[in-house]
Amino acid sequence: MSGTCVIGLQWGDEAKGKLVDLLTSQFDLVVRYQGGANAGHTVVVGEQVYKLHHIPSGILNPNVTNLVTPGVVLHPESMLTEIDGLAARGIDVEKNLIISERVHLVCPWHLAEDRLLNAAVTSGESIGTTLRGIGPCYRDKVGRHYALRMGDLYRKDFPEKLASIVEFKNGFLAGLDPTSKEGPLDLATLSADFDRFAGRLKPFVRDTTHFLLESLEKGKKVLFEGAQGSLLDIDHGTFPFVTSSNASGVGVCPGAGVPPRWIKRTLGVAKCYSTRVGGGPFPTELHDATGQLIRDTGKEYGTTTGRPRRCGWFDSVAVRYTSRLSGVDFLCMMMLDVLSVLDEIKICTHYMLDGQRVDNFPCHVEDLRNAQPVYDTLPGWRTDVTGVKRLSDLPGNARRYLDRVAELVGRPVGVVSVGPERSQTMFSADF
Ligand code: GDP
Ligand code: IMO
Ligand code: MG
């Protein structure tokens, strides 16, 4: 099992952090390979709650090395806050964290661009980004001319490179917002900040690509931790209401820098219902008291931004699509306990669009907006399941619900989670 991937199958926040932390003891390395501080992965250990943004969720295990690989975009100031926060809680970050010199840096101008562009309407709605500068940073990476990578901070020509980027960005930002009351970016202040980042981050920076390939060649076990979710994938998600990286399983190889031959197993993480933060179509969204009940029971408020998450029924059209796209071997069904408050539970089996039955997830955002979900209605179980330790001890209706999900999605359920704690997790016999 050299390479195992943990991938979100919905619109993010599927509880990937909990699962990665739980599985970490079986691995030598945990790898983040896309996204940046837009991610918020929660790990609960007893009374302690950890919210991780850039740092892999393997960091709580002292025997595991955590890599931040080239596909990630890193905001130096928030990375330092994250490192210091963990170190203050006794976590040996310095020993167990390695950051690639190839990661692109999210810079102050990216945050400004994100703020300005996010106010614009795209396809009739704002994307509602996390305002972490993610899209603008990835755009500069692809554009190449005005990008900064971690390794650049340590090169002799960095001062000139920074000066030319700042000059360009000052013109660009003034064009984006001619009425801005913020002054231009100040080169001297920025130079001092980057000097500080370079010094403080130096002990962590290394070529992760060789390290990772060598580890795999030596037979080390590697867990790849996806951020966001497959429906937010830039190429395969609900474009343009997506993030700017390949957040589905297809992103592991380019982001981490590993060939597909090392990927042996993929775990697809899904909530037993659906949530989404920000704009974009969401066919099974609930705008009623049931949606609010799910939000309150599941504490569905963003880990990174605190925004209320939109809530709705489990959508098997979407998860069947993302399970196939991400090459999922097992479904990890999270938050089953939240559904215990409901008398009846619905699962979307297919859509109707322009009078036709639709089983495949539509490509265009307008089709998805117009898709009418068709539901199976199953009886609830109305029993507290948070203390259940074996799948066979779950109430019959909860087992029937999970069986129906597996049947509709076409993948077996390997993990069921009934609470945020490590101990509130059950595994199937064949997992
Ligand atoms: P991630 O971004 O995919 O890692 O997920 P988040 O951390 O953003 O959101 C998941 C939230 O659900 C966190 O607050 C977790 O502590 C919590 N959580 C994880 N598993 C369960 C579960 O089975 N039941 C409940 N009620 N909460 C859970
Ligand atoms: P984790 O890893 C949920 C959403 C934003 C917005 C869209 C684009 O915790 O699951 P961005 O800032 O990336 O340009 O925003 O993507 N989004 C997430 N939603 N969980 C996340 O990460 C997310 N990261 C981005 O809300 O709709
Ligand atoms: Mg999250």
Task: Report what the structure shows.
With 431 residues, the chain is an alpha/beta fold. The protein is 31% helix and 21% strand. The protein has 13 helices and 20 strands. The protein has helices at 16-23, 76-88, 93-96, 108-118, 134-143, 158-176, 187-201, 208-217, 252-256, 289-297, 316-326, 365-370, 396-409; strands spanning 3-8, 29-32, 41-45, 48-52, 65-68, 73-74, 97-100, 104-105, 205-206, 222-225, 263-271, 274-276, 310-312, 314-315, 330-334, 344-353, 356-358, 372-379, 413-417, 425-427. A ten-stranded mixed β-sheet has the order 9-7-5-2-10-1-11-15-19-20, sandwiched between helices. A hairpin with a 7-residue loop joins strand 19 and strand 20. Helix 4 (108-118) packs across helix 5 and helix 4 packs parallel to helix 6. It is globular. The chain starts with a strand and ends with a strand. The structure holds guanosine-5'-diphosphate, 6-O-phosphoryl inosine monophosphate (IMO) and magnesium ion. The site of magnesium ion (MG) has 5 residues, from loops.
SSE layout and pairings?
Layout: E1 3-8, H1 16-23, E2 29-32, E3 41-45, E4 48-52, E5 65-68, E6 73-74, H2 76-88, H3 93-96, E7 97-100, E8 104-105, H4 108-118, H5 134-143, H6 158-176, H7 187-201, E9 205-206, H8 208-217, E10 222-225, H9 252-256, E11 263-271, E12 274-276, H10 289-297, E13 310-312, E14 314-315, H11 316-326, E15 330-334, E16 344-353, E17 356-358, H12 365-370, E18 372-379, H13 396-409, E19 413-417, E20 425-427
Parallel strand pairs: 1-10, 1-11, 2-5, 2-10, 5-7, 6-8, 7-9, 11-15, 14-16, 15-19
Antiparallel strand pairs: 3-4, 12-13, 16-17, 16-18, 19-20
The structure holds guanosine-5'-diphosphate, 6-O-phosphoryl inosine monophosphate and magnesium ion.
Residues 12-13, 40-41, 303 line the site of magnesium ion (MG).
